[in-house]
Amino acid sequence: MQNLNERTKKVLYAVVQSYINHPDPVGSRYVTKRYEFGLSPATIRNIMADLEEMGYLTQPHVSAGRVPTDLGYRFYVDSLVAEKSYYTNLEALNKLYSKLKSLKDDIEKLLNETTKNLSSLSHYLGLAISPIPDTTTLKRINIYKYRDNQLAVILFTDEGLIKNKIINIDIDISQKDLNRIANYINSEFSGYTLDEIRVKILKEMSSDKLKCEGLIAKAMKICQDALYFPECNLFVSGLSEVLELPDFADLEKIKELSKAIEDKHTIIKLLNEITDAEGVRVIIGSENTLDELKKLSLVVSPCKEGNKSIGVVGIIGPTRMNYAKAILIVESTARFISRMLSEK
Fold it and tell me: In this structure, is residue 1 part of a structural domain?
């Protein structure tokens, strides 16, 4: 990003803020009237032309005003963060937090409710992912006979994550033996992460004793399969809120947004890269590494219990986003969830 003098920075900030407020190309005369810079329309017009040459602004067509590029939005967001110029109405956030407190023992319900409220507050898409199961800590596991060749597994974690799955088996095993297997896991491995437990089980399965004891080896295989939960859950709310924005007035943009939402693996992949980050992150348009999101912006933040990630919350919307409001909502919500869960 090029160095800009203070006068140029003020004009660029004004153009971006004006375009966020009203989605019409911004002209020099409007900036002159709206902002008291003490500059003539001609001077501001020349500055805007320079900003266009540098890649901060673009002109949709000849004789139109300018609109920000992704680089222009990046300058604006960095200025907000540096100056802490955030949206400051906290009343609605406090109402949200009172709702979330009652859900702190079930992380998935908590995150689902969070996305609904993030969308309602911002008028963009609210999104969240639950913790990656491998990094969660076992509290209890129950295993039930479902059919002759299938078992139902229900997993509870210390983070409030509840997962269930059906696994296939090729042995006849009684519910009594399944209870013994579950009791063994709960007594030996409670307090370990799922990844740590699977490593320990694999080590035990390789021992000579287990190689000789076929039934025990198969029981350990059931343990291994029962504790394999490869994906976190994605929660998205607020499509109707977003579709009311002028940015999605044409069908092509609606299709792009729908495609991004439908490809959950795309968003999960992106958010998983943020789970270990510190604080709020803003990813603008072309800064996205994923093609499906290059015309959208994300404001996201990890939630943590101590040093352990317990998910990510955020907002997704057009690049013409009210970043000041979005940053505050996401940052404050992530901090609240982290603090609330750390106090359990």
Answer: no
- 221 belongs to a structural domain: yes
User: In this structure, are 250 and 104 located in the same domain?
Assistant: yes
SS (H, E, C) the chain: CCCCCHHHHHHHHHHHHHHHHCCCCECHHHHHHHCCCCCCHHHHHHHHHHHHHHCCEECCCCCCCEEECHHHHHHHHHHHHHHCCCCCCCHHHHHHHHHHHCCCCCHHHHHHHHHHHHHHHHCCEEEEECCCHHHCEEEEEEEEEEECCEEEEEEEECCCCEEEEEEECCCCCCHHHHHHHHHHHHHHHCCCEHHHHHHHHHHHHCCHHHHHCHHHHHHHHHHHHHCCCCCCCEEEECHHHHHCCHHHCCHHHHHHHHHHHHCHHHHHHHHHCCCCCCCCEEEEHHHCCCHHHCCEEEEEEEEEECCEEEEEEEEEEECCCCHHHHHHHHHHHHHHHHHHHHCC
Task: Rank 58-67, 79-88, 120-129 by mean pLDDT and report only the highest.
Answer: 120-129
Q: What is the pLDDT of residues 210-245, one digit of tens each?
A: 554 555 666 777 877 877 776 678 888 988 878 888
Please indicate, yes or no, whether residues 143 and 286 belong to a single structural domain of this protein. no
Tell me if 197 is assigned to some domain: yes
Domain containing 318: what range? 91-132+233-342
pTM for the full predicted model? 0.77
**How high is the pLDDT of residue 252?**
74
